[in-house]
Amino acid sequence: MRIRSLNLVRYGRFTDCALEFDAPGVHIVVGPNEAGKSTLRSAVGELLYGIHPQTKLDFLHAMQDLRIDARLQGADGGVLDVVRLKKNKDPLRTPDDRPLPQGTLDRLLAGVDKDDFRTVFALDHEELRDGGRALLEGKGDLGEALFESRSSARLTRIQEQLREQYKQLYTSRGKNQPLNLLLGVNGRVAQTKRERESALLDPREYQRIKDAAEQARVDLDELTAAWRDDQSELNRMNRIRQAYATVGERARLTNDRNALLARGMAAAAHVQEAYGELDRERRSLTESESNARGELDKIDVQLAEVQLRAEAAGVLAGDGASSGPEYAARLEDLLVRVDELRDTGREADVRWDEAKKAVLKREQELARQEGAFAQLPEPVDPTPLRAGLKAVPEGLSGRIEVLYRQTEAAELKLEKSRKRHARFALPEELGDVAEPGERELAAQLKRIGEAETRLAEAARRHEEESAREREQRRALESFLAADPPPSEEDLERIRAQRQQLWTRLRPSLAEGGPAASPELAPAYEAAVTAADETGDRMRREIQRIAERRRLELAVRESADRVAELAETLAGARDAREQLDGAWQRLWEAGALAATPTPDAAEDLMRALAELRELSEICAQHRFDLAADEAAAHMHTTRLQVLLTEAGGPAAAEDLRLPELRELADERQAQLTEAARTRTDATTKINEARVTLAEAEREEHDVAQFVEGIRRTWAELTAAHGLEGTPDAVKTSLERMRKVEEDRSRLHTQREELHAAQRKTQEQQERTQAEFARLLAECEAVSEDDLREAIARGTQLRRIDDQLDLLLATLSGQGLSVEQLEREVAEHDLDELVTRIVEWEQRVGELDEARTAKNTEKAQRELELRRMDGAATAAEKAEAVEQELAAVVTHGQEYLRLYLAERLLLENIEAYRQQHQGPVLSRAQQVFATLTSGRFVQLVDDTGPDGKAVLRARRALGSAPAPAPASGSDSDSDSDSISADGPLVGVEGMSEGTRDQLYLALRLATLERYADEGRAMPLLLDDVLMTFDDARSAAALRVFDELADRFQVILLTHHAHLTEVAAAILPAQRLHVHRVG
Amino acid sequence: MKLLHAADLHIDSPMRGLERYPDAPAELLRGATRRATENLVALARAERVEGVLLAGDVFDGDWRDFETALFFRRQLVALEEAGIPVYLVSGNHDAASQISRTLSYPDNVTVFDTARPQTARPRADAGFVVHGQGYARRDVTENLAVGYPAAIPGLFNIGLLHTALTGRDGHDRYAPCTEQELAALGYDYWALGHVHTREEVSAEPHIVFPGNIQGRHAREDGPKGCTLITVRPGRTELEHRDLDVVRWARIEVDASGAADLDEVCGLAQDALDRARAAAGKPLAARIVVVGRSEAHAELWRERERLGAELRALAQDHDDVWLEKVRAATSAPQLSTDPADEGAGAGELVRGILRTARELRADEDQLRRAIEKSDLWSRLPAEVRGRDRLDIADAAWCGQLLDEAADLLTAVLEENAA
Predict the structure, then answer these.
(1) Entry's Gene3D superfamilies (chain B) (predicted)?
(2) Which of A148, A158, A898, A909 to mutate to test the interface with B (most CBs of B within 10 A)?
(3) How many CB pairs under 8 A join A and B?
């Protein structure tokens, strides 16, 4: 593919920068630095592969305006004009702005993708130097050299990156790389595995501990059984030892008991208790007897004193005893009777005084009430006035007010309605207006509406058809204006003209005919020709004639239709006018000033209905108001009369009903109040009279009662020989009663003491009998004998208690007393003690062993319990898995990077094997030219490590330079020398030569593309910057040679280069373009 | 009547492939198989089942910690306390396990004989009967089912067997038998074990693999649990019940519409959120980014960042552990036709792809290339196997090579840019 022309219409700093690259040879684009050479290089790439979405080249022209035009030529010679835009939709277009599929352009690109184009077909100075350095870094490795010179991509460096990356994950001698930390003997994987292993509980270990626990339990059981046996024996021996003392004590006590019984009878325990009790009782009775006697003496003295007091107080008169209970009862009754009479007399006196006062008070009250009644005015009857007020209807005044306002409002509304409908000039009295009926009116309106619709439709259709006719006429006129074909009429007319001329000419042709006028024959000929031509033309233009006929026919038909529609329209208008007449007639009967239009008819009807309704409302309100006002007047007159009759104030003539009613209400209330006051006064006088009569009766009754009491008192005192006031009588009686009470009390006490003496005597007799019984029971003759028997009994019971205790002690040892006594008898105490000591030691030893075994058993069981299904080992296993997962992750990444490197190396090798021959061969030619023959051959040599290396053979006679210093530009011989000249390795080449070698290899690589028909323009950006003139000239010769296979575009800011080029290249092979 | 059927408990079998990273929810995922077993017991108690059927592989064959057995025993005792009998056949793992041989079982557990089929019934009036035979050794290759007795009329007959039937992917073909052979015995329900993916093989009779109770690695994804059998007059209802405490999920993120890594992360986050919500429990997730994407090269160049970003996103959920992030995208400009390798790419890339194709065609050469790396011989045996660095698997080697080619082309593109 070649670029024939390139126009940076709007791109970067360029505006309409057009460059022609059509001519053969080398194109040099010259511009100073910053002139936009890089932009130009970028432009070619973006022209072919699209403008980058985030391009920075929109600083001058807006993003959406960026545009590159180009004419491209494919390998097959085909030309394609393209426009590249910065657009999302159809960014590739033709010059006339039609979308151009990218595929069309892709066919020209022949499979060279964007990256290939940028790295293979574009080369700048930096890349050239970088390529040269890469050759040096690769130490001439042939594969790498070839591979690196494929493009500007530094693939061997990528390989190094990959290697560096996987070595960061693991190296065989590394320590801190992730995989090194994980793997190995001390790596985290091994470490967590060890932790897991140590946490494992081996089933055999579990079984062992379980068995040991079981064994410990069995051992313990055995030890416990042995210990129990020995302990039992020891217990038995201890029992015998303890029984020794008990058995001896028991024998001694038994002897004591027998001796005691031999001395006499031993009293039983109850005898001892009974004797104690009797003795205590005996002493107590003696004491009681003595006390009673003293008390009796004291009572006798007191009775003598009482007798003296009785004589001083005197005795009641009358029959009966003068002392004793009966006398006491008489005294008591009399005291009660005196008290009653005294109290009743006092109360009666008080009541009599009060009754007398009450009579006086009632007499005064009656006099006061009668005086007040005499002061009251004469009564007036309020009934007529109340009836007059009741006759006034409730709410009459309020209703009049409301009706008045409603009437006013209705009249106002009616007035407004009249004004609103003033346009209809309706009369004041609507009763005269006779409008048409609703249905009749609706029917008429409907007819008018339909007639208008028909009229409008007819007018519309007429208008449309007229327009159509005009249109068709215009079409026909246009047709006729542009050389219209003749019509049948034309032909007829021409033929008629010809016939006419023939008719005129033919007589002259007849023999002896008149001579025709000289112009007739030519005219006839012209007419014949015209007729023929017209006929011919009609045949030729038969289609146009048909068109003309169609147009003419259409015009005629349209005209006919217009005429028909005009008639229809006129008919519709007539019908409409007739309806207007009917409309007028419809309204004539009414008394309206003017006939309404049909449009206003509905409004008028509504206005009439509204006004009628409002008028009716007004009339109703007025009527109601008048009726209520008449009623009010009647009630006013009546109330005035009644009020005067009732003694009320004289009312003004103009008082209205509500005020009059208020006055009447007030007067009625006054009259009612006066009547009530009078009634109350009468009631009070009557009540006072009744009360006075009651008081007088009461006073009389009380006086009778007082008299009765006085009589009774006189009789009572006379009967008992008493005299004096009631209080004095009472005092005497109380004194007598006190003496009698004391005497009675002392007699009672004396009787009680006598009774107590008798009872004591009886008890003493009973005690004596019991004592005798005890003596008999104990076979005693005296109380001393009895006491001794009781002492023996006490001692015997104590011995028995001790014997019981010893027996209980012996019985508690599990054997019968007899057995124990036998065992004691069988054993010697000393021997027994010695044996007990031995057995105690033996039992102690067994107990210790048992305790130790029990501890062991507990430990075993604890160990077993600790094995409760803990997840420690399982958690460690999870930790191992997590570490292994890390190994997998890092390992996979390592292997991925490792394989990526392998792929790259394989690819390098494959490329070398495939392209080494042709590339080296071609590069050798280019290198020889570039070095002006200093190097004649490129050799595939073997390096010290057996790998293929690239070396160049210096031409014989070409002087070797000294060993290269950094940055120097001379070559040294190195490695080997052959008969043809020395071989120089890349390390031995000067920097410039290495660059040349890289350029040679790079250009040689391109040949393959040309061979495959995939040549692309070669963009060389200042690649000769560091070349001297000779090397530049050599390079330019190579470029020129290359230019027939590849389009060569050299970008430079060295104007001098053009001079070098002009000196060595023919003018037709050199094309200089200046930019900036 | 209700029964519970579970298999392949693999108690204390560790979660595989979960590399620890900062803030990974390690505590949440710890002891997952134990907690799933506890869930099984709790479910049996809650549903008041009349029996628990365990179809083998309670333990991992090579696991040697007897604490695991003691844990299992504790669970069996919990069932015993609830009056629930347990029927257990040993599987290939149990046969190989030292711990299963040492464990003494509580009285409610019937461990079926390994020498011959045995029939068990919890009590004389029980409505069901269980026939079973365990594995005497790991590699039982004979058909055990043929020796099972005929069904007992009038009872719900259950066959308990550890088998792969006629074979299942990823599972050794132990105790082989056919559905027809099982059906011929006239049982009502075949409680099978060995296959870790739930499968109702047949409905008449019911032949069921309940799957394992807890997923342990990326291939064991999706819900895991047991089968609750409800026997009603005339019909038997089966219901899967989740027991797993951690759900494994493979989350595919379609990056076709993504322009760069950040957009891929956004899509991945959405997908992760959805997966977590769907699981309703802690998640061990593998994210696989797929599709022809503009972001393809960036994903490979920035693969470390991709992993770090997605792990950071996973931390939005405090119970999601990102097991792996894998870029399986392709470059949008490349032809999808494998035969048209690298069409659309530059010559360099095409060359790389061609070389990769040639290398992959020769499996041995590829394997040797991997083995030649310094690392390979230093890797512990555990990581050189299935689901890990499986050099014996040509597909795994091929995928590694493809990834290497993707990585390399991404670097080449970056370098060219």
Answers:
(1) 3.60.21.10
(2) A898
(3) 202
